[in-house]
Specification:
- Chains A, B: Its EC number is 3.5.1.16.
- Chains A, B: GO terms for molecular function: acetylornithine deacetylase activity; metal ion binding.
- Chains A, B: Belongs to the peptidase M20A family.
- The structure is a homodimer.
- Chain A is α/β, with parallel strands linked by helices.
- The first copy, chain A, folds into 2 domains: about 290 residues, Aminopeptidase; about 130 residues, Alpha-Beta Plaits (2-Layer Sandwich).
- The first copy, chain A, is built from 12 helices and 16 strands.
- In chain A, the strands form 4 sheets. Chain A has a 6-stranded mixed β-sheet, with helices on both faces. In chain A, strands 10-11-9-12 form a 4-stranded antiparallel β-sheet. Chain A has a 3-stranded antiparallel β-sheet with strand order 4-5-16.
- In chain A, helix 4 crosses helix 12.
- The two termini of chain A are about 20 Å apart.
């Protein structure tokens, strides 16, 4: 082990400059949804040059679009290919997926950026740009792990499947397509920005829309109507109560530090059209957290039950039930047991490289790991460089030291997990 | 008296057909805000042909626009003249204003109308069309009262000032302009649709906008933010409490039948942009009722105090006070004492014509009477044909019998109030 550790470390140092340039190139592709072609083509070429079996495809078709886990604002994916590169093992070892997405959220207001949003500029050891932390930096850690092992002449027994996917930010259609294409493995690592914490469990989430009804009247005789705004207060309170009940059940110590492990957030409220009229309709839109191990359908049923119970608080709701619609984005929760063998390997490498024991937590957000666990029998662990606090914000950046430290941990983890062929 | 009563009744019956045709003509002018020219020109010609001193003008100028009671979405009134016709008395009698507006609210969705919205069609004694009830029917009662007295050769001692104004639906700039032009009288009648009830008091109202602040965060870690939606629940509750306190003070028996004499209606709520984000701003828009005799400024101060008191309930509001803006429409409340001599006269004529005592109530909405009372020393009583329930709705109509009954009451009231010259 000690030997591999110092060999890997030295090799990563040698690759540092070229790898930083590569991450800069990746960040300079403004790969927002629908515009991922150029970065994916570049990654495919690189994987091919490394001798991996490369698969680049534009997803689509009924099997995908009609799949119960398919979520996307679009159904056409020209300009947004997926790329998978397989580094075939010699056989007899455990396989692993290194999954990461290349789609980034929009830059937002450019005036709030100190550098242009897709600059890739490096300052004080930080590489700046939209997607640097979420999650091109993590993807580089994965790729570099493979490059370093190849440079050291390592031959792994198990397959390493490098996945560069699209559509994670919209709900995971890219990873769903890899699964439908047949990709699976004995485990997966997803280097989303966890600030190098290990997340064996990831919260899922799904969006809902509620329509709360009232009856219109003139504001001067508002008692002749029924205010949908007043009724929506009761709905918001009922959702708050549901959130409390659901979170009181969350006894998992991984969630001990979170004030609300699986929040229900009502993010949008909109109702009424005229100050002097009683509002007859209010729309609420929100996001419901789903616990690791919980079935999405069970969470949906619990929401519906909470809304139906409103009829007992206020007979208005018996005659005018709140309409519930599940729409838009959805991320499946994921969970790996803490005694999973990949957890122990990761822990050991983490201590070896950083000198400290990794922090283990549960993520407050979903990743594509939920799909891999639920549909591909592939336990997924989320750990990566980058910090959530800068993801989706102006002046997003990543600490380059963390990218390389993570690459070292991944390289050593691949050796342990997949096994090294002596032949 | 008995003599006048039967003479007036017979003359109204003679005028019925022509008067119905005139009301049809008025309703066929689609005199929504900005499009009142043709009806006002027609009315001015008629008043001139009746021998009244006619004044037609397009209002404007600094005195109007900068007046503290000026409220309008526009500052230019081309196409929207006011018309006043004065029937000069012989002297020594009390003067009276007959005030009514010709602006109508938009027709709305034409598909919901059984006849075209400006048809003026008569079916089963009802005349249909936008503005029939609010308030061209009432205006016809006023005009017909003058015509009938003239036909009977009556010469009144006091002046009768017939006012056909614009902009009532937007807050009363038309009547404000008549006041600034110097028109005033010893009393005023306003035949808004009261279903022939007498409203000596009219509720005022004004629009407000509240901005409730929060702090944004990701929905999955919503405890890191502050939801403006949750905070707005507290604001809505505080407004509800304020409404209760204000209405508990309303001991006037005229309001005894109203569940909430001076309602505060929150008609619009809007906040947040994304289901997965914590909303950082919620806008509330509403309409505050103002009691007859209450100063608008006092009501405003009471609202501000209620919002400021939120800081004691939740320290968030101390750091992030709710912003209060008074905007858009405003109607000044009005009040005439119940023992005002015009009240007794009206009551007597009402009994004479209908055989029953009039119902006296306070209106749940404002009229231009508030301005006449507050700024022109002209006590205003609101009484007219037409029913509030159909005003502003599709298939608006007026019962023609009520229009003619009201004309008789008005004609007899003018005789009693202004006095008849024997010379």
């Amino acid at each position: 082990m000690a030997n591999w550790q110092s060999l890997v470390h030295e090799q990563v140092q040698k690759e540092r400059e070229a790898a930083t340039a590569l991450l800069q190139e990746w960040v300079r592709h403004p790969s927002v949804s629908g515009a991922e072609y150029s970065i994916q083509e570049s990654i495919a070429k690189r994987l091919a040059s490394m001798g991996l079996d490369v698969d680049l495809w534009v997803m689509g078709g009924e099997e995908l679009i009609k799949h119960p886990y398919f979520v996307s604002p679009r159904q056409q994916f020209e300009g947004s290919p997926n790329v998978v590169g397989v580094w075939k093992g010699t056989g007899g070892g455990r396989s692993i997926i290194l999954n990461g997405h290349v789609d980034v959220v929009p830059a937002g207001d450019e005036a709030q950026w100190e550098q242009p949003p897709f600059s890739g500029e490096v300052l004080d050891g930080k590489l700046y740009g939209r997607g640097a932390t979420d999650m091109k930096g993590g993807n580089l850690s994965s790729l570099l792990a493979i490059q370093v092992l190849q440079a050291l002449g390592v031959k792994l027994k198990g397959d390493v499947i490098f996945q560069s996917v699209v559509e994670e930010e919209s709900g995971g259609a890219g990873t769903l397509s890899t699964i439908l294409r047949g990709y699976k493995a004995d485990a997966a690592l997803i280097p989303e920005p966890t600030n190098m914490k290990i997340f064996p469990k990831q919260q899922g989430s799904m969006w809902f829309r509620l329509l709360v009804k009232g009856r219109s009247a003139h504001g001067g005789t508002r008692y002749e109507g029924v205010s949908a705004i007043e009724k929506s207060l009761l709905v918001v309170q009922a959702i708050g109560q549901l959130e409390k009940v659901r979170n009181d059940r969350m006894t998992d110590p991984l969630y001990a530090k979170l004030p609300i492990p699986i929040p229900i957030n009502i993010g949008v409220i909109e109702g009424g059209k005229w100050p002097s009229s009683v509002a007859d309709l209010v729309k609420l839109e929100g996001r419901m957290g789903v616990a690791p191990g919980e079935q999405m359908e069970d969470a949906k049923a619990e929401m519906q039950a909470a809304l139906s119970a409103l009829a007992q608080i206020d007979p208005w709701f018996a005659e005018h039930p709140v309409e519930l619609e599940w729409y838009g984005a959805r991320w499946v929760p994921g969970a790996v047991e803490e005694d999973h063998p990949l957890m122990e390997i990761l822990h050991n490498q983490f201590v070896a490289i950083t000198g400290e024991r990794a922090v283990v937590e549960a993520s407050p957000w979903g990743t594509d790991g939920g799909l891999l666990t639920a549909l591909a029998d592939t336990p997924a662990i989320v750990v990566g460089p980058g910090v959530t606090q800068v993801a989706h914000y102006p002046n997003e950046y990543i600490e380059l030291d963390d990218v390389f430290r993570c690459a070292e941990i991944f390289a050593l983890t691949l050796i342990e997990w997949c096994g090294v062929s002596e032949s």
